Amino acid sequence: MRIISEKKIDIRGRVFGGEKVLICLPLVSNDIKSLCEDAKMLYLATPDIIEWRVDCFESENIEDIVMGLKALKDEIKDIPLIFTIRDYSEGGKKKIKDESKLKILEAVSKEKLIDIIDVELSKGKEYIKKVKRIIKDLDIKLILSYHNFIKTPEPGVILNKILESIKNGADIPKIAVMAESLEDTINLLNTTLEAKNMINSPIISMCMGEKGVISRVVGGHYGSDMTFGFLGEASAPGQIKMDTLKNLLDNLF
């Protein structure tokens, strides 16, 4: 029996903080044609959530991105969509200026075709405030994320990142760190549990890399509400193929 959040977030019938650990599949396509083909494949795999990593898209033109978004939504239908322009400093595929990102976020938010925006906590209070102004009254949720591709920080640092995300208005804090040892993974899981008991709201957490794979499976027992699998190409180290991940979670929860 996993921890159920007092605060739950229901997006098109997929509940963050509920009894089920949600599975998200990322889209890392680089053009509209491959985006549609990949989206069709992901839809057939029936994930709970799909994430579009727009930093992998070859065009930064707003019209092209909006066109891609509309084509994508036609393929994934009612599956909730996370819209992410991952920052280069935290694993993004290319450098995109903050001003350009905000213009893209504003344009796609107006289309009312996205459900969640993922923004790095490291972008700072002022940037986050601008994002919150963009999505105000649009029923779009905000993930504030922290990624560390080098190591797993001390538990106190991880806990502070989660609490800082909540303080800055996150609907869902996300932590993804690199495990260099099994101890790192245990620390991440235990800190997730501690944070869950403190904030009692949805959290996403995982350890990346070979030594962190287990966190993507058992994280739900410690309070993490979503895990990432993949079809085709993984978007982060340590992700598990969708069919394997689904079978593991079905037997655990």
Characterise the protein shown here:
The chain is of the alpha/beta class and about 250 residues long. Helices cover about 40% and strands about 20% of the residues. A 9-stranded parallel sheet has the order 9-8-7-6-5-4-3-10-11. Helix 1 (about 30-45) packs parallel to helix 2 (about 60-75) and helix 5 (about 155-165) packs parallel to helix 6 (about 180-200). Homodimer.
Overall outline: globular
* E-strand count: 11
Percentage of helical residues? 25-40%
Low-confidence stretches: none
Subunit structure: Homodimer.
Pfam families: DHquinase_I (PF01487)
InterPro entries: 3-dehydroquinate_DH_AS, Aldolase_TIM, DHquinase_I, Type-I_3-dehydroquinase
Pathway: Metabolic intermediate biosynthesis; chorismate biosynthesis; chorismate from D-erythrose 4-phosphate and phosphoenolpyruvate: step 3/7
Secondary structure layout:
Layout: E1 9-11, E2 14-16, E3 22-27, H1 32-44, E4 49-53, H2 62-76, E5 81-84, H3 98-110, E6 116-120, H4 125-135, E7 141-148, H5 155-167, E8 172-178, H6 182-199, E9 204-208, H7 215-218, E10 226-230, E11 240-241, H8 242-252
Parallel strand pairs: 3-4, 3-10, 4-5, 5-6, 6-7, 7-8, 8-9, 10-11
Antiparallel strand pairs: 1-2
Helix pairs in contact: 1-2, 2-3, 3-4, 5-6
Concise synopsis of the structure shown:
With 253 residues, the chain is of the alpha/beta class. It has helices at 32-44, 62-76, 98-110, 125-135, 155-167, 182-199, 215-218, 242-252; strands spanning 9-11, 14-16, 22-27, 49-53, 81-84, 116-120, 141-148, 172-178, 204-208, 226-230, 240-241.
